[in-house]
Amino acid sequence: MKILITGAAGFIGFNLCKSLMNLKSYELIGIDNINDYYDSELKYDRLIELGIAPKKASSFNTLSSSSLNNKFKFVRVSLEDKTSLVKIFKDFQFDIVCNLGAQAGVRYSITNPDTYVNSNIIGFLNILECCKDFKVKHLIYASSSSIYGLNKEIPFSTSSTTDKPISLYAASKKSNELMAHTYSYLFKLKTTGLRFFTVYGPWGRPDMAMFLFVDAIIKGKPIKVFNNGDMERDFTYIDDIVEGIKLVIDKKTKNSLYKIYNIGRGKSIKLNHFIEVIEKRLGKKANKQLLELQPGDVLKTWADTSSFRKDYGFEAKTGVESGVTSFIEWYKKYYKQE
């Protein structure tokens, strides 16, 4: 089975590649544009972890084979580059596409809207077109809990209203779901959208709360706590997210051509409690800088994962205490803080 994973140098894409690359039943191609939204060195180090070397950016512009597994290959390309995407699809004839590549970040979308239109909408359209033209059997793509926006029905259900997003990032993800529905309806393309809830863990993004808090506390810097910490998030550990995606890849269901699922821990946790767990694991108190709720932020997220559990047997297994410990261990090792 040939699988394309977009965003392969990103947090979730990297972890999925790492989990799949040694399985005999898969041939993997990873793509990523390695943009500068956050430290590109982290992205290159993820690729090196997957056996893609050397580290120089220019070396990633053409197809590179992994030194760890000849069934994993990587090419640096943007989703907006339709000509290159068409060539990749034509050369490899993928069975499944996992579209995890996108411009992330709620707050960044407020000041850099063009980036989100280019990557998340035009880029996703190119993926849909290639999947249609090259008869891909199944497109699995990343959506987001942020699309629930001003919805006040808790926990968030896939049957809940999602027509009031409060950031362009959320709007772009909602657009992806609508676009996928159109292609499923018109061209019988099987699509499955996964609404991720606050993913964290080793190799995580530096702009996410987990990373920002640990980094600042270790360095003795203040942490920014929005809405005085009176927010709740359904923090979901990366290994649970990866296992959920793998279930969708592996398991054949009788579902309709178009499906949407929540994929989260299924438990909402106070931000202040999350910080307390980090403090306990680090053995060091945080210097909190209490701030107002930021534009684009919602007060609470909580995933109703019942439909995903029913169809795929999904069950998130990693609690916050265990997940925070794993992240801190990785952070200290990667940044030589031990």
Automatic annotation (TrEMBL):
Where does the record place the NAD-dependent epimerase/dehydratase domain? 3-264
Q: Name one Pfam family in it.
A: Epimerase
Listed SUPFAM superfamilies? NAD(P)-binding Rossmann-fold domains
Q: Which InterPro entries match?
A: Epimerase_deHydtase, NAD(P)-bd_dom_sf
Question: Could you tell me the keywords of this UniProt record?
Answer: NAD
PANTHER family according to UniProt: EPIMERASE-RELATED
The name this protein goes by in its record: NAD-dependent epimerase/dehydratase family protein
Q: What organism does the UniProt record list as the source?
A: Croceitalea vernalis
